[in-house]
Automatic annotation (TrEMBL):
Its EC number is 2.4.2.64. This is Queuine tRNA-ribosyltransferase catalytic subunit 1. One of its GO terms (molecular function) is metal ion binding. Keywords: Cytoplasm, Glycosyltransferase, Metal-binding, Transferase, tRNA processing, Zinc. Heterodimer of a catalytic subunit and an accessory subunit. PANTHER family: QUEUINE TRNA-RIBOSYLTRANSFERASE CATALYTIC SUBUNIT 1. Residues 1-24 are annotated as: Disordered. Residues 41-393 form the tRNA-guanine(15) transglycosylase-like domain. Zn(2+) binds at C332, C334, C337, H362.
Length: 415
């Protein structure tokens, strides 16, 4: 491994949690403290301090799979006060590869991003690229989607790639199965995930700078989730993730699994729900005690001409917006809403490449602002009222889905 690159100073953004210089950061690679709790639900506000940023939680983390957020520049993310984003170990390990990443001094420098990074382990590709993969106890043998060559991703290789990337938070390689899977394969994957965690910890070469998060697996079976969480929490890690959801299961099964897992995980460490990004899901899962989220949804839906609002997603391609001179959202202060009308965006979405960038900026801003609004509501003791108000706008005329009613009722919020 090359010597560790010097940390990049954090640009001041006017927010107290982002103005520290990297040289003044605490020596531990991750520290987490809860600063406020909702008195009714399991929601809480925390500060997660890593080498490159102080991250206020609950937080939504935009996904930059290939080391770039599609359609959004790093400086635009900084202008939105985004503190943390994602990269993907599998894809970055394939291209550009560890040699280039090490030569560049890590992904922060390679992509020009001075704040926090989290990397997925590559395990999700077991599901998304299953036709190209063979899973064994050793690891996952992939056929590269780039050139067709074969490669083996093991827990050790995943750690090697993530150490080269230099992400502040790294995910263990886990054995991922679709949530609709039943039978012995689910339990097999859960136990293998635990074994792979121990191999990941053993292979981690930069523990004083980077933190591993284990991933709670077990499908939709409460007994397996309990067994997995019990084992993972025996390891001295700095945070935990809930994996294997948003893969086709019912929303009723989804929320019950999240609710169970947050009950099982330590209160003094961050809890990360992987792959969840619909706004209503974020609100519900914050109430259920989740601190961190990620999803490609905001930028992916922007490429199809869809913008996010509190009242729901709108498709700017629709003719109804052809003469609409309002911004996407009247109370949004992002650069898109300050500059462009719905009519203009209707004219260019899915036609002009720049439209992807313009709408993506708003969609990411929407997600970040929603999380900030929830943090404010929790700290001010009005989170249950915020949830009720949000759901009334998002689902007018008493159309709130039953799963949301049930999930919120489980944490004492009656709609």
């Amino acid at each position: 491994m090359d010597t560790v690159p010097k940390e990049v100073p954090i640009p001041a953004s006017g927010s107290p949690a982002s103005v520290e210089d990297a040289t003044t950061r605490p020596s531990a690679p991750l520290q987490y403290r809860v600063v406020a709790k909702c008195g009714v639900t399991k929601a809480r506000v925390g500060v997660m301090s890593v080498r490159h940023a102080d991250v206020d939680t609950p937080v939504f983390m935009p996904v930059g799979t290939q080391g770039t957020l599609k359609g959004v520049l790093p400086e635009q993310l900084l202008a939105l006060d985004c503190r943390i984003m994602l990269g993907n170990t599998y894809h970055l390990g394939m291209r550009p590869g560890t040699t280039v990443l090490e030569k560049a001094g890590g992904l922060h420098r390679f992509m020009g991003w001075p704040r926090a990074l989290l990397t997925d382990s590559g395990g999700f590709q077991m599901v998304s690229l299953l036709q190209l993969a063979e899973i064994t106890e050793q690891g996952v043998r992939f056929q590269s989607p780039y050139d067709g060559s074969e490669c083996m991703l093991t827990p050790e290789r995943s750690m090697e790639i993530q150490n080269a990337i230099g992400a502040d938070i790294m995910m263990q390689l886990d054995d991922v199965v679709k949530t609709t899977t039943t039978g012995p394969r689910v339990e097999e994957a859960m136990h293998r995930t635990i074994r792979w965690l121990d191999r990941s910890i053993g292979a981690h070469a930069r523990d004083t700078e980077q933190s591993i998060f284990p991933i709670v697996q077990g499908g939709l079976q409460p007994d397996l989730r309990r067994a997995c969480a019990a084992e993972l929490t025996k390891r001295n890690t700095r945070g935990f993730a809930v994996g294997g959801l948003s893969g086709g299961e019912s929303k009723d099964e989804f929320w019950r699994t999240v609710h169970l897992c947050t009950d099982l995980l330590p209160e003094d460490k961050p809890r990360y729900l992987m792959g969840v990004g619909f706004a209503a899901d974020l609100v519900v899962c914050v109430a259920l005690g989740i601190d961190m989220f990620d999803c490609v949804f905001p930028t992916r839906t922007a490429r199809f001409g869809c913008a996010l609002t509190r009242a729901g997603q709108i498709n700017l391609k629709q003719r109804t917006f052809a003469q609409d001179m309002r911004p996407i959202e009247d109370d949004c202060d992002c650069s898109t809403c300050r500059t462009y009308t719905r009519a203009y965006l209707h004219h260019i979405v899915t036609v002009e490449p720049v439209a992807c960038s313009i709408v993506s900026v708003h969609n990411v801003a929407f997600q970040l602002r929603l999380m900030g609004d929830m943090r404010d509501a929790i700290q001010e003791g009005r989170f249950p009222a915020f949830v009720k108000s949000y759901m009334a706008v998002r689902f007018p005329d008493d159309t709130v889905p039953q799963w949301i009613r049930d999930a919120l009722a489980a944490v004492n919020v009656q709609l």
